[in-house]
Amino acid sequence: MDSTTMLYEFADRIAAAVTFDYGSNHNARECKCAEASCRRLGIEWICIPLEFMKRYFRSALLDGPGAIPLGDDYNAENMAATVVPFRNGIMLSIAAGLAQSLGLTTVMLANHSGDHHIYPDCRPAFVSAMNSAISEGTGEKVVLEAPYTHLTKNEIAIRGAKIGVDYSLTYSCYCGGERHCGRCATCRERAEALAAAGLPVDCLPLADDHASDTTPTAQA
Amino acid sequence: MDSTTMLYEFADRIAAAVTFDYGSNHNARECKCAEASCRRLGIEWICIPLEFMKRYFRSALLDGPGAIPLGDDYNAENMAATVVPFRNGIMLSIAAGLAQSLGLTTVMLANHSGDHHIYPDCRPAFVSAMNSAISEGTGEKVVLEAPYTHLTKNEIAIRGAKIGVDYSLTYSCYCGGERHCGRCATCRERAEALAAAGLPVDCLPLADDHASDTTPTAQA
Questions:
Q1: Which H/E stretch holds residue B46?
Q2: What is the pTM of this model?
Q3: Which of A31, A153, B2, B105 is most buried, most CB within 10 Å of its CB?
Q4: pLDDT on residue B74
Q5: Which residue of B has its CA nearest to A52?
Q6: Is CATH 3.40.50.620 the classification given to domain B2-204?
Q7: Distance CA B198, CA B195 (A)
Q8: How far is it, in rounded angstroms, from Cα B28 to Cα B73?
Q9: What is the DSSP string of chain A?
Q10: CA-based nearest residue in chain B for residue A127
């Protein structure tokens, strides 16, 4: 949702978009969505596979749907298991080298403030340090911009709704199934953001998961 | 030469060594050498292929031996063509994520002062910024050390000779042939460093290249 909103908002400045396929449960669906959004906006789409992450890195995000914390398991400690070590550092470094190779001057990242707590490589201090590293390491040819660093995911969705982002061409679920599971942390955040923006929520929990919440009173 | 010297000097602190195969002319030979040195020192060796660099990145180092500046072509402008954009940033980012995944605390880089002029991602300012980015992005779990940043390649070789580094298990030539060409920039630096350390020079220019230097007086 966040990257696609940025793609729409800055479409006239963006020469190419990069999706990294690092073997997470949801990467394949994410790639299809990214490709479709880029085609619609007329932006070149590049997919870079990073097989080594699936092979060597430790993260619940890389260990199949069964490893993703759901429902009552959704707390800070369990969520920390979904960190992919230095994921944004790796993706930004590759994007920076690619940008310099293509004669481009800027790399953009759609991190947001809701991720700061769990993911260190989404925080303002990381973005600032990474911008310095990219600038120094490319001989000041490339810089990093992160326009949503201080926005919440809800604010991003509200912004996206105003400029007509098609969120049906985005995929969020950490479990990677055909439909959004509605129970993992990212599905919950997606539902909240879509609702805040007044858009249809496509990641409701399945009926079974809500059985215990459904009382006769509520049905009436 | 530089990485292998560091491998020997810090062997008792090093849990794993990573070689990146990014499709340069000399990567295949470099990998064989790195693997052999690690086997000798009892250090785990990990090889990470980065096919996307060969495919998308622009550098004389990735365009076959014919693109490497030789002999009279060896000047700052031509040497700049051998820059692989943000190469050290990419390799260090992956190494940082790998270190965090393996529960290790430090990533080490054997950059040296002779590379500062041509390669921005070897300079002290880059190393310092990249250290901040790695520290911030891993939640202060990993830091970067670059113990040779202020040494020359000659000083590194002198250090290596003292501790018994086997430089016959290192490969430097940018052209990637079976023997060191002796004419590219890195072969010239290798020859100078080995000579400074009082070690046999294994990358002398071929006889043909020296024909014009050989006068009857010199032969006598």
A1: strand B44-49
A2: 0.90
A3: A153
A4: 66
A5: B48
A6: yes
A7: 5
A8: 25
A9: -HHHHHHHHTGGG-SEEEEEE-S-TTHHHHHHHHHHHHHHHT-EEEEEE-HHHHHH---GGGS-GGGS-BGGG-SHHHHHTT--TTHHHHHHHHHHHHHHHTT--EEE----GGGTTT-GGGSHHHHHHHHHHHHHHTTTS-EEE-TTTTS-HHHHHHHHHHTT--GGG----TT--SS--S-BHHHHHHHHHHHHTT-----PPPHHHHGGG--HHHH-
A10: B133
**Cβ contact (<8 Å) for B90 and A90?**
yes
Q: Is A108 within 8 Å of chain B by CB?
A: no
Q: What is the pLDDT of residues A90-106, one digit of tens each?
A: 999 999 999 999 999 99
Pairwise CA distance, residues A182 & B171, whole Å: 54
Output the average pLDDT for chain A: 89
Chain A contact for B54, CB < 8 A? no
Please determine, for residue A186, whether its predicted confidence score (pLDDT) is greater than 60. yes
Closest Cα in chain A to B132: A129
Tell if the CB–CB gap between A85 and B96 is shorter than 8 Å: yes
ipTM score of complex: 0.89
| Cross-chain Cβ contact B57/A89 below 8 Å | no
Residues from chain A contacting residue B136 (CB–CB below 8 Å): 120-121, 123, 125-126, 129-130
Is A105 touching B (CB cutoff 8 A)? no
